[in-house]
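Most newcomers find our protein records easier to grasp once they have seen one. Read left to right, the backbone structure tokens trace the chain's path through space. Once this layout is familiar, the rest of the handout is easier to follow. The record below serves as our worked example for the rest of this section:


***
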Amino acid sequence: MKELVEVIAKSLVDHPEEVVVTETENDKAIVVELKVAADDMGKVIGKQGRVAKSIRTVVKAAASRDDKKVIVDIQ
């Protein structure tokens, strides 16, 4: 999941070198934290959170085959 979020985020932002994605796994959940430059935060979130919601939807669809819950946290 980490690679998927990283590829999506790097394609959206102006400063792809500042994209940092970390992944931690709990019992039944995978937490993916996405950090981008302050200038790029609006591009990752989008108007009314539409881009962020789309990223979460794509990641959840990719994780459905593993029967794990995925939480994408944008910081």
In short: The helical segments are 2-12, 41-45, 50-63. Residues 1-74 form a domain with the GMP Synthetase; Chain A, domain 3 fold (CATH 3.30.300.20).
